[in-house]
User: Fold these one by one.
Assistant:
Number 1:
Amino acid sequence: MNNVLFFAHLKDEVGAESLQIEAKGKSVLALKQVVHDTYGLSSIDSVMTAINEEFAEDDDVIQEGDTIAFIPPVSGG
Amino acid sequence: MNNVLFFAHLKDEVGAESLQIEAKGKSVLALKQVVHDTYGLSSIDSVMTAINEEFAEDDDVIQEGDTIAFIPPVSGG
Amino acid sequence: MKFGISKEPINIQEVIDHVVQRNAGAITTFIGTVRELTKGKKTLFLIYEAYESMAIKKLEQIGTEIRERWQGAEVAIVHRVGKLDITDVAVVIAVSTPHRADAYEANRYAIERIKEIVPIWKKEHWEDGQEWIGDQLEKVSYPEGKPEAKHLDE
Amino acid sequence: MKFGISKEPINIQEVIDHVVQRNAGAITTFIGTVRELTKGKKTLFLIYEAYESMAIKKLEQIGTEIRERWQGAEVAIVHRVGKLDITDVAVVIAVSTPHRADAYEANRYAIERIKEIVPIWKKEHWEDGQEWIGDQLEKVSYPEGKPEAKHLDE
């Protein structure tokens, strides 16, 4: 299983900070599609993704136990 | 009379922070010449001068009671 | 903490203390504060949220980037999270270097990088609504999958 | 004091407090510290001396210049005098502006102007001697009789 984290407006839309999703073997892009379809998160296509706290590419493949975070455009500072 | 102030290396060379000098009617340049001749301050020619805490030109004329300060190149900060 | 996320008000002097060094002649700090008016619209307060563990890693990364680019530089960065009122301090960046030009440049680099790669978000609250703010650098997509270091003098 | 000469250690937070404003999104500070090594030569300590009454006027003048050039800017500057050891703080400049680019630029302007027009001098003490330092900007003569405002982006 994989812990999938949501922040900012994504968290508001999903209604949860994190979800347990079986994503092993999926690409980041494929997981985005799942999230898009399941939660109606259309903006997920344009956000960055982190695997285990490092930015990842859409074609990176998720391993068992990886923590996935969807990172909307940041606005710190 | 005029209070004439010396700072940094000028103060060390003159051996005083200030001197009472009659400079009324003299130009700044003329006062520099007096100081140069009296105290052997050759570097006085290249320093700035302030009259009553504002930078002055060599041809500005000193009035009774003006405070004159010789300002070596500054090094604050 | 030299690179940190804080739920409490940031002690600016403590951040500065992390970068004091015998061969620094200059320390610059950047203090980001909550501004009341943005484009004529009145902000009531902000909420900052962070992906804390990753944000700390990214702040540390910025510190490493700066030490590589500016010789002799030391860096400390603390970002606040939670509810912030007008004039409250959101972020403090302290950079020390031997010479002053580098201290300004490296500090500027840090704030620009924070706005690129550190997972922190702010929600603005106005009288008539609220919104998560994003994309302040006007870049929606990252062709390389992640933000790139950019020259600040572009 | 918003523009001052201090015989005691400078409280950085107090200088910053002078420039906090509801429409500032950015505060920058420049903290000049005593560096141990300059061109390989080891400094033991410094003595700073000021023509105090004029120095305060000139610091205030720099504040005025900045408020005229950078809209919405607030400025505070305190310079220390007396004996300073390595890492001691010689000067603190705080500038607040609505947007961050201005806060960096205006702050940089302030330190450059201090080195031009504020009557403060430092005497460096090394193991083998001591000397009053001057002319750090490599300008011996002032053709206009007094220093001119210069563009910092030259």
Note: Chains C and B do not touch (no CB pair under 8 Å).
Number 2:
Amino acid sequence: MKFTIAVFGAPHAPGTRRALRFAQAALAGGHEIVRVFLYREAVQTASANLVSPQDETDMGRAWQRFVADNQIDAVVCIAAALRRGVLDTGEAQRYQRPAANLAAGWALSGLGQLHEAAQQCDRLVCFGDQ
Amino acid sequence: MKFTIAVFGAPHAPGTRRALRFAQAALAGGHEIVRVFLYREAVQTASANLVSPQDETDMGRAWQRFVADNQIDAVVCIAAALRRGVLDTGEAQRYQRPAANLAAGWALSGLGQLHEAAQQCDRLVCFGDQ
Amino acid sequence: MTTLHVVSHSPFADDRLQSCIRLLRPEDGLLLCGNAVEALRDGTKPRALLDEAAAASRSIYALDEDLAARALAGLPEWLRAVDYAGFVELSCQYQRVNGWT
Amino acid sequence: MTTLHVVSHSPFADDRLQSCIRLLRPEDGLLLCGNAVEALRDGTKPRALLDEAAAASRSIYALDEDLAARALAGLPEWLRAVDYAGFVELSCQYQRVNGWT
Amino acid sequence: MARSMLVISRQAPWSGLAAREALDIALAGGAFELPLALLLLDDGVFQLSAGQRPESLEQKDLSANLKALPLFGIETIHVARDSLVQRGLDIDSLGHPIELIEESRLGDFIARFDHVVTL
Amino acid sequence: MARSMLVISRQAPWSGLAAREALDIALAGGAFELPLALLLLDDGVFQLSAGQRPESLEQKDLSANLKALPLFGIETIHVARDSLVQRGLDIDSLGHPIELIEESRLGDFIARFDHVVTL
């Protein structure tokens, strides 16, 4: 089956970890992931500035590794990201902000990317803050 | 009276705007603000990377202006900020992150600053996400 | 020794208002703001809880901007609306403020 | 046409579980994860709601890691625990997934 | 054939960005002329309340976005009747034309769509 | 004389950072030897549940932090009895020594402190 995974909760929210474990299990089960889409507070998961205490799981890094290792199409909603201060080089320049902080592997794009993925997948599965 | 204002909710949360209006009203009423302390999701309010749509109130900027205009002691919890990717120059260097994004006027410091302010004030007023 | 409790979550979605009302004493105050003012809607369960608390001499306030934004009608006589200056005054008048964040 | 509903908020603090149960049909599924598994605690109101739903032929699942983390005992016979592979299978088996985010 | 999506909006209009960001999903889909519907459930029904004055909270008028839905091909707003009743909202004086859904039909309604997004 | 603070923790231990960040306030105050107390209310009482296995969720053991409280001068954990009962937790098999507070005494208890922080 083809899955789209949408994540809405903050990086340290239980739902964000659950979304990652679900995505890993989907691949392990022989399924395909069309796209991962970060929206609402989840855009922070794509921030390269997150610093986790050494004895805690670094959810930003874990997602980044998953996306890289499996060549996942990984999109961050641009409108949600701007409001929450997650900027790529282009947006940082456009709005004259101190520095880009979007982690490698993620791309800023519009909500249309969520709909496009929904058109291509069999199941859209959304994960929230809890 | 001497107030300490603690803010816990995200920049766009109603509680964050209410905290600002309360702080302004406290000063207008002749009271003193010992310190503003950002904790939990509120640390994002001190991010210099927030970009609000032009027709919306920019809460980060509004707080920053309030802090500057009234020379408010404005502290952001460092542990909460690291986890959520809000870094000053020192922390960005220490953890080798792309760039500092703490807005001018705010200082990263420990939770001890909340307790120190609580010792000096008559009322500690906390504002959350809602 | 009096406490001003500030509640701002929707009483339909969240347990804060109910939890707060149960520990409110006659000498305490309850300030409704944000979505908590929806508890004032006529004919609802949260409103019945508030009516009961008011009848038992609890002091209940609401932030006027939140009432205005929602165009709340049929407000009870026992309710005292306050602006931010009033919110600050209440914070002084009561001896501590407990924000149900 | 069947739906898998996924609820993860605490039933004591939040209205999602109750709202979900009211629209669950016999052919739908309910997966409890996160704090929603606390609804399984014996002798509580949310547990009574779930018992009632199960008696009315609703299929109820729970994510095993959340049960384990909370050391939940006295689990009902009608409950089916699943791991992530099982969660993925359920997502395929039901025709859509509604995450109560 | 295009896959359909139901957006379920469960949050009050003044809870931060939740209601707005739910509506943005619907509007974005409408812009692509996708088959899409909006269901207001639980606190989401407060979005319909008449006479709202968002300017008292320095907020934009979400109501205008709701009114824009037909321009994006979303002709009706679906609303759970029991959510309205429980919250003391008068069905006859709402600010928008709506289609009420009875509690007993909510499950069937959701099952009409290929995808569901609840916010 | 130092001003006292009551930290009220209302969130379950697995809800993200809320319970941990509430406890951090208490521990930070304890480190300064300030008069401080912790009250578990509503879902906060789940922090006391015995036999928790945080490793199944790749989480740190919050329970260890609770056990550390006496080292920071916070001798007792105060707990609302009705919150425990409502959630089906057995008072006799909790993982920590606690002091129960009856519902009718909660308001008076809170009023003993100069400041209150609820998380």
Note: Residues 15 and 32 of chain A are 21 Å apart (CA to CA).
